[in-house]
Amino acid sequence: MFKSRFFAGVAAVVLAGQTVTAAVVPAYAVAVPGGQTLVQKDPLESVLEDLLLVQSQYSDTYSEPVGPSYDLDRQERDPNLSSAYDLDDRITRGVVWIIQSGSNECQNSIRPEYRFDCLRNVLGRAASTIENRPNYRDAARELRSLSRKLDGIVSKYQDRSAPRASVGQRSYRAVSKANLSKARSEASAAIDESVTKLLRSAGNSEKRKTHYSQIATAVGSTKRLLRS
User: Fold this and answer.
1) Domain residues of the chain, as ranges?
2) pLDDT tens by residue, 30-72
3) What secondary structure, in 3-state letters, does 141-191 show?
4) Whole-model pTM?
5) What DSSP character marks residue 14?
């Protein structure tokens, strides 16, 4: 009799705990007897949600950095917001999403002469997401290198009389229209070189090749915004 009452009590406590958890955290919802069935939502159902997970993952000992997440000048994501993880599909999809969505914004929001600086910013933000992840460091280095090359191209051909173009909280410099063709040629060559280095840096690891090739493809696709 005592055992029956004991196990019945335990079951009631567990069931009550699940009901409270379902109400607070929908991702852990369960079917409650006599009540409404709460359907579990897959937190990875979209690339956008993957990216949010990537950028919200911190180590257990991580402390919130002092100051803004974006450098006031370059407006890139603080590399300290990243933590150390192995190669992961969510991480790779997040980096690809940053590059693709960022380049689309550059193409659709501002004129061609501003897109070099915009792409420079996008690649810098993508690099900062994975710079502290050991198995992504080679990829991050290539993204950062390409970002700096674009920065050099913009500085070299900058139209200092042109106002900055603003997209949200970020602002971008313009290259002079007279040098637009030269800037495109140099940027295109830099992108091709980075794609090649990304593929080579994967080494003999099939797993690294899978992840690095996705990033390389995303980088290569950015050439279209320079041509339009």
Assistant:
1) 1-41, 43-227
2) 333 333 333 344 444 444 444 544 444 433 322 333 333 333 3
3) HHHHHHHHHHHHHHHHHECCCCCCEEECCEEECCECHHHHHHHHHHHHHHH
4) 0.65
5) H
